[in-house]
Prior knowledge:
By secondary structure, the protein is mainly alpha-helical. 63% of the residues lie in helices and 8% in strands.
Amino acid sequence: SQVLMSLHEMFPAVHAAEMAIRRNPRSWDAWQTLGRAQLGLGEIALAIRSFQVSLHIFPMNPEVWKEDLSWARKLQEHKEKAAKTEAMQALAKEATQEPIPDYDFESDEIVAVCAAIAEKEKALSEAKSVVIVSASGAVETVTEEENRATTPDDTIFIRAR
């Protein structure tokens, strides 16, 4: 299991440590190794339980007390703080979002605005003016005739209505 962990193969490492525990459930180092492999998978609560079993079997092991269990508890505290912060941010985001107003699209104001926009578009389309940017960089607004468009120097870069 320890070799698999050093190769970053966490699932097989957990499986190997579990097999070692099934073979000898009183092996404190197998429980310690299982806890480390579980930490590698991000299973903090399971790792803490494995370290606690290891300490129950061999309570005088300073490595499990000082390194493994304390590290797993710090990770758990950070995870809980991050979850609380994320929940608070989600609540704050929900509180700051304003509800979308319910519009009546058949109201007289909306119909009047749509009519005004249509009249303005109609007036612009009747004028048929063209903005021409020539090769020399000159910008000119020209009104088109019905049958053909005029250009100042036979090269059009951008044509917009």
